[in-house]
Amino acid sequence: MSRIETLEGALRRANRLVALVLGVALVGTVLFVLIDVIGRKTGWGSLGGSDEISGYVMAAVASWGLSCALLDRAHVRIDLVRQKLGATGQGLMDIFAMIVTNGVVLLIAYQCWPVLQKSLERGSRANTPLETPLWIPQGIWFAGWAWFALSATVLSLIGLAYFARGKRAQLANTIGLGSELDQ
């Protein structure tokens, strides 16, 4: 197994672990909200903060989940031109798409940092009954975008390495369309 395949395998395993943690967080959030709603309806009282906490969990799941979707090739791509090209042309389109995705994600992650930085500097808290220190959910949110940026960068480099070595099948399986066209 080559170093590229080892790196790709490690990235895939890490993202599967991320997906598992996200799934557990979502199930936990659903249970928390369900218990809160039942408690309010039956007169047992509210646990409080279920709306706030579920919002934080959704932001975290969104930012971290994007990387999982990238590795599973689940992001939407339009392939009108790509499907008419040969293997080399498709490989170039796949690399182009990954590099553009990578650039956008790096920009977003870069722009997320000042949000977290200001909350840290100011000691900002949520204007809610929980008064959550905002650096906690924002830190998790930022880390998700940073992970997405790292994953996109690594996949771009893996794609370039496969292309340079003429490994078109591995390139298509790594960053190509996640559709039946590549099968």
Which features would summarize this protein structure in a list?
single chain, 183 residues, mainly alpha, 5 helices, 74% helix, 0% strand
Describe this protein's structure.
- The chain is mainly alpha-helical.
- The protein has one domain (3-182).
- 74% of the residues lie in helices and 0% in strands.
- Helix 2 runs parallel beside helix 4 (135-164) and helix 3 (87-122) packs antiparallel against helix 4.
- The longest helix is centred in the first third of the chain and has 40 residues, at 3-42.
- It is elongated.
Range of strand content: under 5%
Any idea what the shape is? elongated
Taking all residues together, what is the mean pLDDT? 90
Q: Number of helical runs?
A: 5
Q: What helical percentage do the residues reach?
A: over 70%
Output the helix-strand order. Answer: HHHHH
Helices and strands: which structural class? mainly alpha
Largest sheet: none
Radius of gyration: 20 Å
Instruction: Report the uncertain regions.
Output: none
Number of strands: 0
